[in-house]
């Protein structure tokens, strides 16, 4: 390097690129819940599946699913638009008597 007139730093501290560290980091998995539900409909989870690349025969592109934590019983509703989700939830809530 000296023959090319390039000075070499004697800095022994390695350079750490913060963006590289963030890009290589991994999010730790969620811990397993110890919560035990004592009866049906005590906790309901839901998820909305955003638009299906191919609509169903009836034109549905969205799906909302409700899962009971206790029994794992599942209800599936088909939606044409995502804006129908609130009405679907109200319908579900009335159906199960919450």
UniProtKB/TrEMBL annotation:
InterPro entries, per database record: Retrotran_Ty1/copia-like, RNaseH-like_sf, RNaseH_sf
Annotated SUPFAM superfamilies: Ribonuclease H-like
Top-level taxon of origin: Eukaryota
GO molecular function, one term: nucleic acid binding
Protein's recorded name: Retrovirus-related Pol polyprotein from transposon TNT 1-94
Organism: Cajanus cajan (Pigeon pea)
């Amino acid at each position: 390097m000296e023959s090319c007139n390039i000075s070499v730093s004697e800095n022994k501290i390695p350079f750490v690129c913060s963006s590289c560290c963030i890009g290589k980091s991994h999010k730790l998995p969620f811990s397993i819940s110890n919560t035990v539900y004592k009866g049906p409909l005590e906790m309901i989870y839901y998820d909305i599946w955003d638009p299906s690349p191919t609509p169903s025969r009836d034109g549905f592109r969205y799906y909302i699913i409700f899962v009971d934590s206790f029994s794992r019983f599942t209800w599936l509703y088909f939606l044409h638009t995502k804006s129908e989700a609130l009405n679907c939830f109200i319908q579900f809530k009335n159906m199960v008597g919450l």
